[in-house]
Design a protein that fits this description.
320 residues; alpha/beta; 7-stranded mixed beta sheet
């Protein structure tokens, strides 16, 4: 079957290890389901895998891709939850949880096999392309907002780095849930798009906001850390799920954190129940993932280049 896979690890030039070509079809195994992939979306995790983060040389070649929507063996339309080992179903109770391609072949292929527990029904209201965007970036944003930030309708939220997959999802989900969303971006066009998607205002990174917020959704890291901390109300919550600009800010702002009793919460992905809630929320409220580009699988390299260059707003989706 045709697939996009990591053939080599290169920390400095990750795309040099990306290959497109034929790979063996997945083998059936007890407790697992084979899905015919219709659409799969890119995440920064795929780029990090090519750098060797969470993926070792001993696991190569590895088909990339964590997110997908397609049809199961009975023709049912399904979405995949990409955290493997969360429950022990299909892998045994002692296997630590991992994201699909850290241990098993991924979704950038004509077929993928995952534990049957990880297969969810796709709402008919969502297209395959839309559903394929939800299990990683959108699920991460959902958990950050509604589980870890604990915000309620009417609360205010700052989303750093509008344009990225998680940040874009947080803007759309937050606005749909009745939050007062502010956003930042270095790019004027991305700031304008954030407002179109429901943000009350969009600002330059580091720019003084009109008011402090109840929570900050942080995926940028070092470059925006101080601004995130300084933007919070006393008792506010900073939720972080990534650090695309680096993990070591120049100032940790510890004095401000303890004096204002701020909360800093780490967040990673989300559970199957949260993905079910997210799918239901999108179907019921008419919320749809923001898609930047849709490409056929044989043009996957273009999608990786676009993501690596940061020249996007929303998700890149590959279709099979």
């Amino acid at each position: 079957m045709f697939a996009a896979y990591a053939a080599r690890i290169d920390r400095d030039q990750p795309l040099s290890g990306l290959e497109l070509g034929e790979r063996p079809e997945p083998e059936a195994r007890p407790g697992w389901t084979t899905v015919n992939v219709k659409a799969a979306s890119l995440n920064h995790h795929d780029l990090w895998s090519l750098r060797g983060v969470g993926l070792g040389e001993e696991s190569l070649p590895m088909i990339l891709g964590c997110d997908a929507a397609g049809t199961d063996e009975d023709g049912n339309e399904v979405v995949l939850h990409s955290v493997i080992g969360q429950s022990g179903h299909g892998v045994g109770p002692k296997e630590p949880r991992s994201i699909l391609t850290e241990r098993y072949q991924g979704t950038f292929a004509e077929k993928v096999t995952v534990p049957s527990w990880n297969v969810l029904t796709k709402p008919k209201e969502l297209s395959f392309e839309e559903a394929a965007c939800l299990p990683t970036a959108w699920l991460t944003a959902y958990r950050m907002l509604f589980t870890n930030a604990g915000v309620r309708p009417g609360d205010s939220v700052l989303v750093q780095g509008a344009g990225g997959g998680v940040a874009t999802a947080a803007i759309v989900l937050g606005a749909a849930a009745g939050l007062r969303v502010l956003a930042t971006s270095r790019d004027e066009a991305k700031r304008a798009r954030a407002v179109e998607l429901g943000a009350e205002g969009a600002y330059e990174p580091g720019e003084r906001l009109p008011r402090r917020v109840d929570a900050v959704i942080e995926t940028v890291g070092a470059a925006t850390w101080s601004h995130s901390v300084k933007s919070l109300k006393p008792g506010g919550t900073l939720v972080i799920s990534g650090a695309t600009s680096g993990p070591n800010p120049k100032a940790t702002e510890l004095n401000r954190i303890f004096f204002l009793e701020l909360k800093v919460v780490g967040s990673t992905m989300g559970g199957k129940d949260e993905l079910e809630d997210l799918l239901s929320f999108c179907a019921a409220r008419g919320v749809r993932p923001v898609i930047d580009t849709v490409l056929p699988l044989d043009r996957a390299r273009e999608g990786f280049e676009k993501m690596a260059g940061g020249d996007l707003f929303g998700k890149v989706v590959l279709t099979v």
